[in-house]
Write the structure tokens for this entry.
Amino acid sequence: MIRRFLFAALLAVTAFAHIHIAAAQTFPLLGATLDGGDTTGLTPAHVAPLDVLMLGAYVGWKNSQGLDPNQFAAEAKALNPNLRVFIYNLIEAETDPPSEMDEKNSQIASIPWWALTGWPKGSRVETGGSGHYAVNITANTTLLDGKSYPQWRAGKDFSSFLSPNPSVAGLYIDDFNYEPPVTADYAQSGSSQSPSTAGPMWRAGYVTYVKALRALSPASQQLVLGNLATWLPPSVAKGRTITEFVSPTPVLNGGAMESIIGQSYSVETFGGWTKMMEYYSYVMASVAAPKLVTFNQDAISKTDYQGFRYGFASCLMGNAYYYSDDAENYNDFLTYDEYSFKLGTATTAALVFPGATAYQHGVYRRDFANGIALVNPKGNGTQTVTLETSYKHLSGTQDPTVNNGQTVTSVTLQDRDGVILARITPQAVPDAPTLTVQ
């Protein structure tokens, strides 16, 4: 899951109509993790429709218009005051000599703070390929000026990414995992510990880093997000724990549920829809306000509109920010007709799994002031639901067989499908739907 900046071709710039107004949070909520390619082609206008952006902006970064991260974030926020921009960072792996994101972190090698096979004379341990080596992020590390590695790194990252960029809301930390990726001597005891054995001290190291970062940051920059791909509940991954990340209080304010749909290793692939939704609910309960979690769907095909609606409607069952990757290394986001329809505020609560009740025939529903979202889980077969009143399909050009603007009183969903329907008359408090649990 470690992604490196490729500095390849510039991004093609597109735009779409959905831009939230300031004030009340309305749906759909949109996010993006753009940290995997050459991000210099991004413009404020392109990202302004988003609500949460995790941006790959290294030290010295400027976009093709000459904007530094602070100017970029400020101009994007002027277009959409709801947007929060976070700068990408990674603290648990480095090249040798260290050169991550053009930032010469020479102290990592000189102290040294490498994760070694045995302290202090062991060998470095490669992780993630491409000549990257594991760093010991725990508080067991040798002190520099009275600071362990996570404390020192927090100061370094504040000086590099937050202090010069006051328009940025905070940092996004990649690979915020429940245990280290490799076996090494994290305890500095003279012999290696397995990832599971080292898990508690590893998690505590991340907590130390976040607390130190917040202690340095002004109130406007104290939000910290992380890659939440491994934060699976015990019901999905037996024996897994993130105790130190959530107790006594959650350490993160959100992050990315990376590849929740679309890969062989996605929860939806190996666990099915219900386990994916359990993971979704677990993550939302495991982060602190304002819970800026992105629901990252890896698009297998840009024209798989049914697959998109399935993921988008699943996301709308909760309060995460939807992101459809372009399947090209996290360097842009796909856009759909549904983004331009303002569902408005949610008028029913987010579904919580396990335990959420289906609407009809195994199909799930959530209501909004201007419409409803329906999702038919994978494995549920084709289902037809009868609505309590008339609704309208959205009008669109990408998939006009579904988004045809027609008024309906029932709707048929294929297996692994979803749909957004508009109310004929918007209602702040809609009529309760008729439940037929089967």
